[in-house]
Design a protein that fits this description.
396 residues, Purple Acid Phosphatase, chain A, domain 2, 8-stranded mixed β-sheet, 6-stranded mixed β-sheet, 13 helices, 40% helix
Length: 396
């Protein structure tokens, strides 16, 4: 049987800096010839659509950015040859029901399939099955919870529930020749995966997934060959110019090429780098850091204590970048902080915040975050407080 070639791209969404190129369908200007040729030669092309297509100006209420693109910008995504887009992610529900309906409509009209979300809890479309060269390929999309949970009367995504997801993967594997899981989760901004991620990926592989890929982190992580499966912890960006400045974190991504044969498959990583307007194929294909992290990750799994300690140290250092946000959100309003923020440097202000918590307070915060019971309690308390805030603001 003829080989089946699949291209899996990471996070993509048109941004103001390239709306014109996406709307005109100028894929050469956005992606360059080599990248366009890579997609054109594939039997199946998939990307993560990191947001929605809508002209609505009514975002949902949330902390963090609400991301959309004009419906006209779908042109270049179609021209690039994208066959399917995953929509179980962080930003697909940023414009609520209108954003959901507009996105489904424009993708349907342009012949681009989608999966990973649905109009309500009972209609979430978690996967698609496509046939290429006589092989049945299943594409499955699931995500961690953000402001994207489906309800009985409102749209949302296919949230990761281990029991249900693994059961569905088993059923899919029995129906198909090859199963790919596109998982939207992990810790944004880190090149190193967590123990929780490793457990999840291994369980999905144990239940039939041939390939599992983590998107969302916007950073390239590690690869792992686990039994007969291929795991990619962090694919990085494809074309996602959310921040105008080009930092090392946002500057690269991996386009994964799968070549499925009768006797197995190969996974080939293609490094892409960001340009001012889009992303292009990296001629140097310098993946040395990626392979070094992957080697350290393998050593960790084999019980190498030094490798484990170094890996965890790097993981912790990446997570520490979130510390200012963490402390600011948990602190509440304190008039003294305003003056401190005005007079201190960013580094000194962070030290001031860190020292304002006792060890017992930090242990208590960790308990509410770590323990399932207290995590649920904290979420309920905050939900009730938000309702009270809404009531007060409405009355005033």
């Amino acid at each position: 049987m003829e080989n089946t070639n699949i291209i899996l791209a990471g996070d993509m969404l048109p941004m103001p800096c390239n709306y014109d190129l996406f709307s005109s369908g100028d894929t050469q200007a956005l992606f360059g010839k080599k990248l366009c040729d890579l997609f054109a030669a594939a039997d199946l092309c998939v990307c993560n659509l990191e947001g929605c297509f809508t002209d609505s100006d009514n975002p949902i209420e949330k902390i963090g950015p609400c991301i959309k693109a004009p419906v006209s910008t779908v042109t270049a995504i179609k021209s690039l040859g994208i066959n399917y887009a995953t929509l179980g992610n962080t930003h697909s529900m940023d414009y609520g029901l209108q954003g959901y309906r507009d996105t489904c409509k424009v993708l349907d009209e342009n012949g681009i399939g989608w999966f990973g979300w649905g109009e309500n809890l009972s209609s979430v479309k978690s996967y698609v099955v496509v046939e290429r060269n006589g092989r049945k390929i299943a594409l499955y999309n699931t995500t961690e919870q953000f402001e994207n949970a489906p309800r009985q009367n409102s749209p949302g995504v296919n949230l990761y529930d281990e029991y249900r997801v693994c059961r569905e993967l088993q059923e899919l594997k029995n129906q198909c020749d090859f199963l790919i899981v596109l998982y939207h989760g992990g810790i944004e901004g880190t090149h190193y995966n967590s123990e929780k991620m490793r457990r999840r990926f291994h369980r999905m592989a144990d239940n039939g997934a041939d390939v599992v890929i983590s998107q969302h982190t916007h950073a390239v992580g590690e690869e792992e060959y686990y039994h007969h499966s291929y795991l990619l912890y962090g694919q990085g960006n494809f074309c996602f110019h959310f921040r105008p400045e080009v930092t090392p974190l946002l500057a690269e991504g991996i386009v994964l090429e799968l070549i499925i044969r009768d006797d197995g498959f190969d996974a080939k990583s293609h490094r892409v780098v960001r340009t001012e307007k889009g992303c292009v194929y990296d001629d140097a294909q310098d993946l040395s850091d990626f392979y070094a992290r992957s080697k350290a990750h393998d050593a960790l799994l084999q019980g190498d204590r030094q490798a484990a300690a170094e890996f965890e140290e790097h993981f912790g250092a990446d997570c520490a970048n979130w510390m200012p946000v963490f402390f600011a959100l948990f602190r509440g309003f304190n008039p003294l902080d305003t003056e401190k923020r005005r007079t201190l440097t960013s580094k000194a202000y962070l030290e001031y915040l860190k020292k304002s918590y006792t060890r017992q307070q930090l242990l208590g915060m960790q308990m509410f975050l770590r323990n399932e019971e207290f995590n649920e309690v904290a979420n309920q308390i905050i939900s009730d407080l938000l309702k009270q805030t809404d009531t007060k603001e409405t009355k005033s």
